[in-house]
Design brief:
The complex is a heterodimer. By secondary structure, chain A is an alpha/beta fold. Chain A has twelve helices and 18 strands. In chain A, the strands form four sheets. A seven-stranded mixed sheet of chain A has the order 7-8-9-10-11-13-12, with helices on one face. Chain A has a six-stranded mixed sheet with strand order 6-5-4-1-14-15. In chain A, a hairpin with a 2-residue loop joins strand 7 and strand 8. The model of chain A has no long low-confidence stretch (mean pLDDT 86). By secondary structure, chain B is of the alpha/beta class. Chain B contains 22 helices and 15 strands. In chain B, helix 7 packs parallel to helix 15 and helix 8 packs antiparallel against helix 9. Chain B is flat, with a radius of gyration of 80 Å. Chain B starts with a strand and ends with a strand. Classes of the chains: A alpha/beta, B alpha/beta.
């Protein structure tokens, strides 16, 4: 069976002041082309960039659902990520059901499909669907973004014997994703949006992805294939567990990471074969380190068509910034590499005694070394005789 | 502080009692309060504020109107918390309705829990003191830093200068370094001044009691001593004078005596004339008579002398008696004189006492008078103070009226400003349009100029390319190439010619070689034939040899060659012998061969020479070749090329000229383009400026302000109210008051002086002691000098008589001696010798010697008299001695007086010396006080110049900014950090936009929330690090709704990443994304049908 795995579209996202809409349209067009050769499409979360995306983004999502499902010719599985409002993902449920698309907004959602389509829903449960496809049987276990509180609604808090909050969370995720037993001719596929400890994070992700909510790969249930979303870099965290990553780099620091979609050939009980398909869209992201704005002007031609991050070695005068803004370039941001000149490290004076502070004050306000009699007087006035 | 428990009842939505256990909620460091809008989430925070500060932030003011739930009879809050030191406190407050529909306090208690606890404060005032001590935050601070209220996060962020510094001072407990320190300085200065005044008063008192200080007393004492010394000197001089006088008198008397002695001696000499006669007679007559006579004479003289001596003795006795009488008289007079001293002293003391008591009386009167005047002044002063206070109140009222008038004026002015600003907006809008048009035109000009320029530039580039190609051509001279080609051709011709002759030589040589070959062939044929013939001959000979051998062979006998015994095939018999070869033809052939060889060698040598010539030419040709141009064709090509490039270079010059021309054109076009661009830039700049101006104008003229115009217009103001009059009145009164105060102070000083003087007078009176009984008054007597004179006279007379008597006695003794001598001389005289002239020679001689002695005595006395006489030309000096004696008396009197005066001064000096240590102590204390004051002034001046608190607050601010920047960078995906502008206001640095600085007021809602969060986190950290107190909790009331998903994620991650422990962060929100990330939260269920709002705790 051939599967197509994609995630983290972040529709409606901007890069600095620039909309990525046109690139996302192109990427989804290319995705639809690739999808024509597969039996099922797995979209593992973060469809939208925000809980309240722009209308154009929603339209893009609906359009993609319809074209990917192609009136039920193939199964499309969609889960909500942490950026998505679960109800927004679920909103087109009735229309999606007519196109062979299964939507999961929260952990434990039950899927539905219209009958009479080439793709048939043979059984459905909490976060679970069994499908009869023209090419075989497919069991899908979906766990939409499992926030701690959402997770608690489906997995009873009887796991409190786990000492550590992190372990407890991992155990709950594992319980929520537990697959049906292996069965001949049944391909068991999982799909979720979470942070697997082993994943390699981008620079900016490191700062805020994670915290207590991460799951070690070892605690994930074994599937024939597990389609993960959340981390933006395409990578395998286990032989059969993959992040597809974003279709193209969304952030400056993702520009060197692998991106695209994953094309999987899987058979029940066998390791999957996974190949990366570039999405064929997305403008290049370029970071240029230059001494000043003039150097950017000289590289104007080279930078045309790319999103540019400019790293200057010294703070530019404001007219330079204005000049930069007038260049026909898509400049995402202008950083200054120089460390801020704040007069050196700030001395921590929190533990200093009154006497030391007084002496320091006298010295810093140009009084030189403090006169001892003055210090004594000060201490006496402060009620702290030496 | 850290909240432990909150109980709310009757406050707004909470008609039923609600209890919140923050200890369990905050155990994970982060909890939420959720619920629908209006359910009462913020009311829970209000309850904490009400408990701590007795007030609710949401603007009900002092009446607390509308805080009570209609169904509750009371509003009760109980709040338990832990302070920075771990002590636990409880606040209980209850409010009930007052008559105006507001709330009034029923009771309020601050209770310290645990051992030794109890009610600490009940009065509102005590409450405020204690709470600010425990929490370290004012109500405003609490709201800005602890409960970040809905929609007002930016307050902390946008606090400016003074407000923020005050807040930092409170939070970091800097008051002791500021106001307290200054107050300490003031108090200390006042105390020192009082001490100084006391010390000075005491010193003044001491000085006036003695009337002189130690140095003065010493000076006076020295003077008195000097006087004493002087008088002593004078006494000594007088005494010396007296001694001198007495001496003179004695000498005078000696003279007198000498005179008398002379006279006596003369008399004796005269008296001895009988002796002399007798001697003469005795010398003449008898040896013995002389001594008898002399004895008789001596007896007679002795008798005379006896009578004289008796008379003198009698006289002397009488003189002595008279002198005794005179001495007695004088001693009586002396006694009288001795009595006179104490009497005089007693009368002097009596006079002094009278004077001192009079002085006392006088000073007492002065003191009383001053006292009454001082009381008068006091009364006046209090009257004036009252008047002044009233005047001040009046002036204050006048000022208030004036301030109101000014405010009204300012508003009117504001209104004018607004109007002007509106006009500015309109004007700048018009300008903006004009500039835009300008800009458009200029941009078109730029485009045209750029087009022109690029065309010209393209031309130029093409020309340059051409020129470059030309430049690439090799710079070669064709002449050497052409010369080489010519030389080559000549060589070729020469080579051809030589080759022909070489060929010819070669063919000759070949022919010779052929001849040689045929000769050789011939010879070889001959030689071969000869050899063959020889071989045939030999073969035949061999064959014949076998046949010859075979002839001898017989079967059974061994062969001599092989030894075989059998001989199956014996050689046949030998044939005929071969003819002998003829060597003749060979020799001929050899000779012709030798000729042919010679010919061939010659021909070959010729041919070789010719070939060598050809080769030489070929070498020359080859030498013409060049590694760069190996063949002629290439030479020709090079030559052609060089020629061509020469031509091309010639044309390049022309091209360069064209390029220069084109360049000029391009330059001109570029200049035009740049000018046009500059115009555009200028236009854009002016557009930007106009934009800015317009923006400024727009910003300066907010719509609300414009809406205010109408009511403001009504603010017409009357004439300026008079405040100067009231102020002048107050000022006049103030001056009067100052004058009165000065008067009173003067009076006080005077009074003090008078009191000190009175004390001194009294002290003097006491020092004089009680009145003593009068000593006996001396009786009157003859004037002492007369008595002295008489006594002296009598004494002198007695002395004189005594002297006379002594002389007479001496004479008597002398006479007696002479008698004895004479009688001794007569001892051996026989009786008969005693007659006339029985003098022997010895006697005579003795007599002669005696007479001689008398002569000598006379001469001696005469001499002595003459010697003594010289000094006393005048009358006897008896009066001198008397005068000297009188001078001695006087000098002695003076000396006594001087001694008395000295004793007085000494007594006073002693008193001064007794006071001296205390006065020295006072002086040193006074000095110490002065030094301390100077030091205090130095510190005060330094503090005025550089405020210590400001410095500390600035330091705290820098620390805060540093910490807040760290948080903000994390929260904003490494985009923003904090900085502080020149006025100390926070601003945000956009590191995504070239470190451009933005005021915090320009941040979006979400950014403001994140910045406030960063600041609150930093503040909490900073307090933990720097303050005695702790700020272990804060609440964020909403604000999450303004964040996008990623920012929310970052904010929540940052909050989750806070170090656990004591710190508790409460999040009040309705955003689902927040609740989903919290393990503990409170759900506030809104009030419904008769039931108050409830709070349900979730999670665990």
């Amino acid at each position: 069976m051939r599967l197509l795995h994609t995630s983290d579209w972040h529709l409606g996202r901007t890069l600095g002041p620039f909309s990525r809409h046109a690139e996302q349209v192109a990427a989804l067009d290319a995705l639809v082309d690739v999808a024509s050769t597969v039996d099922a499409v797995l979209i593992s979360g973060d469809i939208f960039d925000s809980p309240n995306p722009p209308i154009a983004a929603e339209e893009l999502f609906f359009d993609a659902l319809a074209r990917l499902g192609d009136r039920g010719r193939r199964a499309v599985v969609v889960i909500a990520g942490n950026h998505d409002a679960p109800d927004r993902i679920l909103a087109p449920r009735a229309l999606a059901a007519a196109h062979g698309a299964l939507l999961f907004g929260r952990p434990g959602d039950r899927p539905r499909l219209d009958p009479g389509l080439p793709v048939r829903l043979t059984s459905a449960g909490s976060g679970r669907a069994e499908l009869a496809l023209p090419s075989g049987r497919l069991a899908v276990h979906a766990l939409a973004f499992p926030s701690e509180s959402r997770l608690r609604t489906i997995v009873a808090p009887d796991l409190s014997d786990e000492a550590d909050a992190r372990q407890r969370y991992a155990a709950r995720v594992a319980a929520a994703l537990a697959p049906v037993p292996q069965e001949p001719g049944l391909l068991r596929v999982g799909i979720s949006h979470l942070h697997v400890t082993e994943a390699t994070l981008g620079t900016s992700e490191r700062a805020f992805v994670g915290g207590a909510w991460q799951v070690p790969a070892s605690s994930l249930p074994a599937f024939d294939y597990l389609a993960l979303g959340h981390v933006h870099r395409a990578q395998a965290v286990a032989p059969a567990a993959w992040y597809s990553g974003t279709p193209f780099a969304l952030r400056m620091d993702e520009r060197t990471d692998p991106h695209g979609h994953l094309l999987i050939t899987a058979e029940p009980g066998a390791p999957p074969r996974v190949e990366t398909v570039p999405c064929g869209a997305g403008r290049p992201l370029v970071r240029v380190e230059v001494p000043d704005v003039a150097a950017v002007c000289m590289r104007e031609a080279e930078l045309k068509g790319a999103y540019v991050e400019i790293v200057l070695s010294r703070p530019p005068p404001s007219e330079d910034l204005i000049a930069l803004r007038k260049l026909p370039l898509d400049i995402v941001r202008v950083r200054v590499n120089a460390t801020p000149n704040d007069g050196g490290p700030i001395e921590d004076r929190s533990g200093m005694s009154d006497e030391a502070l007084f002496r320091l004050w006298v010295r810093e306000t140009g009084g030189g070394a403090a006169d001892e009699s003055l210090v004594t007087l000060f201490l006496a006035l402060m009620g702290r005789a030496p | 502080m850290r909240p432990l428990h909150l109980h709310v009842h009757g406050l707004q939505a909470f008609s039923d009692p609600v209890d919140i256990d923050f200890e369990s909620l905050g155990s994970s460091g982060l909890f939420g309060i959720f619920g629908p809008v209006g359910a009462g989430k913020s009311t829970l925070l209000d309850a904490i504020g009400l408990a701590l500060y007795g007030d609710v932030d949401r603007g009900q003011g002092a009446s607390r109107r509308g805080l009570r739930h209609p169904q509750a009879s009371r509003v009760t809050v109980r709040f338990r918390f832990e302070d920075g030191t771990g002590e636990r406190w409880r606040i209980e407050r209850q409010y009930r309705d007052d008559k105006q529909g507001g709330l009034v306090r029923s009771y309020g208690r601050l209770i310290r829990e645990g051992e030794g606890g109890g009610v600490v404060a009940e009065l509102e005032r005590d409450f405020n003191t204690e709470i600010s001590r425990l929490v370290g935050l004012s109500r405003e601070d609490f709201r800005r830093a602890v409960i970040l209220p809905q929609g007002r996060f930016q307050e902390l962020l946008q606090l400016r200068g003074g407000d923020r510094r005050n807040m930092l001072e409170r939070i970091f407990d800097l008051a002791p370094y500021g106001e307290n320190l200054r107050a300490g300085i003031r108090e200390r200065e006042a105390a020192l001044r009082t001490q100084e005044a006391l010390l000075e008063g005491e010193a003044t008192g001491l000085r006036s009691a003695v009337e002189l200080d130690l140095e003065a007393s010493e000076v006076e004492l020295a003077a008195a001593r000097q006087v004493t010394l002087h008088s002593e000197e004078r006494t000594r001089t007088a005494r010396a004078g007296l001694v001198h006088a007495v001496d003179r008198e004695r000498r005078w008397r000696a003279l007198q005596a000498a005179n008398e002695a002379e006279q006596a001696a003369r008399a004796a000499w005269v008296a001895a004339s009988g002796d002399r006669e007798r001697l003469r007679r005795a010398t003449r007559a008898a040896q013995w008579e002389e001594p008898i006579r002399r004895r008789d004479d001596a007896r007679a003289r002795w008798t005379d002398a006896s009578s004289v001596a008796e008379a003198a003795t009698t006289r002397a006795r009488r003189a002595t008696e008279r002198a005794d009488d005179a001495r007695q008289a004088r001693s009586r007079a002396d006694q009288a004189e001795a009595l006179r001293g104490p009497w005089t002293a007693w009368t002097t003391a009596r006079d002094a006492r009278l004077a001192a008591s009079a002085a006392c009386q006088r000073e007492r009167e002065v003191v009383e008078r001053l006292d009454s005047r001082w009381h008068e002044a006091e009364r006046q002063l209090s009257d004036l103070t009252g008047q002044r206070e009233r005047a001040e109140v009046d002036a204050e009222a006048a000022r208030e009226v004036h301030a109101n008038w000014r405010a009204a004026e300012a508003k009117r002015h504001e209104h004018d400003v607004l109007q002007r600003a509106t006009e500015r907006v309109n004007r700048s809008a018009r300008q903006l349009d004009a500039r835009r048009n300008e800009l458009r035109a200029a941009a078109e000009a730029v485009a045209a100029a750029r087009r022109d320029w690029s065309v010209a530039d393209a031309d130029l580039r093409q020309l340059r390319e051409q020129l470059g190609q030309v430049d690439d051509l090799p710079a070669e001279d064709p002449a050497p190439w052409e010369k080489r080609i010519a030389r080559h051709q000549a060589l070729l011709v020469d080579q051809a010619r030589r080759r022909v002759s070489a060929d010819r030589a070669a063919s000759t040589s070949m022919r010779a070689a052929e001849a040689l070959a045929s000769a050789r062939t011939l010879r070889d044929g001959l030689a071969a034939a000869l050899e063959e013939a020889c071989v045939e001959a030999a073969r035949r000979a061999t064959r014949d040899r076998a046949a010859h051998l075979a002839l001898d062979l017989a079967d059974g006998s061994p062969c001599p060659v092989c030894g075989a015994t059998e001989h199956p095939h014996p050689a046949s018999a030998p044939g005929a012998a071969a003819p002998q070869p003829d060597p003749e033809p060979l020799a001929a052939a050899e000779a012709s061969l030798r000729r042919a060889e010679a010919d061939a060698a010659a021909a070959e040598a010729r041919a070789r020479a010719a070939q060598a010539e050809v080769d030489a030419v070929a070498g020359e040709i080859a030498a013409l070749a060049d590694p760069a141009a190996p063949d002629v064709a290439s030479w020709i090509a090079r030559a052609a090329g060089a020629r061509e490039s020469q031509l091309a270079k010639a044309s390049a010059k022309e091209l360069a000229t064209r390029i220069a021309a084109t360049e000029r054109t391009v330059d001109a076009l570029r200049v035009r383009a740049e000018e046009a661009e500059a115009t555009v830039a200028a236009a854009r700049r002016s557009l930007d400026e106009a934009d800015l101006e317009a923006a400024d104008a727009r910003r300066d003229t907010p719509q609300e302000a414009l809406n205010l115009l109408v009511p403001l217009r009504r603010l017409t103001t009357g004439p300026e109210p008079d405040v100067a009059g009231a102020e002048a009145h107050a000022k006049a009164l103030r001056f009067q008051l100052d004058a009165a105060t000065t008067d009173r102070a003067n009076l006080q000083a005077e009074l003090q002086q008078a009191r000190i003087r009175l004390g001194a007078a009294e002290a003097t009176l006491i020092a004089l002691g009680p009145e003593t009984p009068a000593p006996p008054e001396p009786m009157e007597s003859a004037p002492l000098p007369a008595l002295v004179q008489a006594a002296a006279d009598h004494a002198h007379a007695a002395e004189r008589a005594a002297l006379e008597a002594a002389d007479a006695e001496r004479d008597l003794a002398t006479a007696r001696g002479a008698l004895d001598q004479a009688e001794r001389a007569l001892q051996g005289v026989p009786v008969d010798a005693v007659g006339d002239d029985p003098l022997d020679a010895g006697t005579r001689e003795q007599l002669t010697a005696r007479l001689k002695a008398l002569d000598d005595a006379l001469a001696n006395t005469e001499r002595a008299r003459l010697a003594a006489d010289t000094d006393f030309a005048d009358a006897p000096p008896a009066l001198d001695a008397a005068a000297a004696s009188l001078a001695v008396e006087r000098a002695e009197q003076d000396e006594r007086r001087a001694r008395t005066a000295q004793a007085d001064v000494e007594a006073r000096a002693e008193l001064a010396a007794v006071h001296a240590p205390r006065r020295a102590e006072l002086a040193s204390l006074g000095q110490a006080v002065k030094v301390e004051l100077a030091r205090l002034h130095t510190l005060a001046a330094r503090l005025r110049k550089h405020d210590f608190v400001t410095w500390l607050a600035d330091d705290a601010l820098r620390d805060l900014v540093r910490r807040a920047s760290v948080h903000l960078l994390v929260l904003t995906d490494d985009r923003y950090r904090f900085d502080v502008d020149g006025d100390g206001a926070f601003q945000v640095v956009d590191t995504d936009y070239g470190d451009a600085v933005r005021p915090t007021s320009g941040l979006s809602g979400g950014e403001t929330f994140l910045a406030s969060l960063a600041l609150a986190l930093a503040l909490s950290e900073s307090i933990a690090a720097r303050s005695q107190r702790r700020l272990d909790f804060f609440f964020l009331d909403e604000g999450f709704g303004s964040l996008d998903a990623e920012s929310l994620d970052r904010a929540m991650t940052a909050l989750e990443a806070l170090p656990r422990g004591h710190r508790v962060v409460g999040l009040v929100s309705h955003v689902p994304g927040v609740r989903e990330r919290l393990s503990k939260w409170l759900e506030v269920l809104p009030a419904s049908a008769g039931r108050g709002a409830r709070v349900v705790e979730h999670g665990g």
